[in-house]
Amino acid sequence: MSITFRKLTEKHELHDLERLEAAVWSKDSVIPLHMTLTVSKFGGLFLGAFDGDEMIGFLYSFPGFTDGKPHLCSHMLGFLPAYRKRGLGVQMKWLQREEALRMGHTRITWTYDPLETVNATLNIAKLGGIVRQYLPNCYGELNDDMNKGLPTDRFLVEWLLTSRRVAERHANQQRRQIPTDGIPRVLTCKIGPDGHPRPAAHRLNAGEEMLLLPVPAHFQHLKKADMGAAAAWRTVTRELFLHYFACGYAVVDVMRSDAEPLVCYLLQKGADLS
Prior knowledge:
By secondary structure, the protein is an alpha+beta fold. It has helices at residues 11-24, 33-41, 88-103, 117-126, 164-170, 219-225, 227-246; strands at residues 3-7, 45-51, 54-66, 69-79, 107-112, 130-135, 154-160, 187-191, 197-202, 210-216, 249-256, 262-269.
C-alpha cells in the first residue's frame, strides 16, 4: 500500500498524533492535545504520513520571528521504525514547503546536530538548506541514546523556500558538483586502528572562498567505541564552525566519499544564497 501525506487539522487526528509521538520517542516527549489544537488554530502546521488509515509519521511546525521577520519553525519530524530510511522524510519536507508557501512563509528554520551526517545529507544536500549559525549546547543535557554524554550543539538550518537552490532540488535537478581538488581542509584527521577518524590539527587562518570541514561519517558508532574521541570532535568542530561563521562563511553543501570514513561540509564565503 502506498504512503499518503496530508495536513492534520481535526481533533481526532491530533489525538492520534499523541500516540505516534510516544511510539517514536517517549511518553515524556508527547505534546499535549490542548497545545496542538491551539497551535494548529493559530499558525501552526501539522503534517501526517499514513499507511492506509494508520498514521506512521508526522511533522510539527509553529510560527516564529527572527529579528522581527516571521518564518516557520520546524520542530519535530519522526516515523515509526519500520518506515524509516525509505525517503519519506524528504517527501514530508516538500509538502511542508508547499503548505508553508501557501501560508505566506518564505523561510523555514530547524536545528540538527552537525555531527549527524544522515541529517546533514537530507537538510543540506537534498533539500538545499544552508547554515550560518551554530548553537552551542542548544538544549542542555539530554540523556537519550543519541545525545547522552555530550553537549547538544546544533546547526540552525535556513530553508529559503523561494531560492533558486531549493527550487532546483525540488525539481530533482542534479545539483552542481563542485570539484573538491584544491579546496583546503581546515581540519586534518587520523584514522585509528578501529577504522574511526580522530581529529588532528586544525587551522583558523584560512581565507579562501571555499573550505572543507570534515566530520565522522558514522558519529554514533564512534561515540560507542570511544567517547573521548567523540568529545574531541564536538570541541574542535564547535570552535571551527563558530569561527568561520563569524568570518562570513556559510555551509552550502555536503560531500561524501567512499574512500574515507568522513563527510565534508563545504563552506563558502560570499555565496549567492538567493
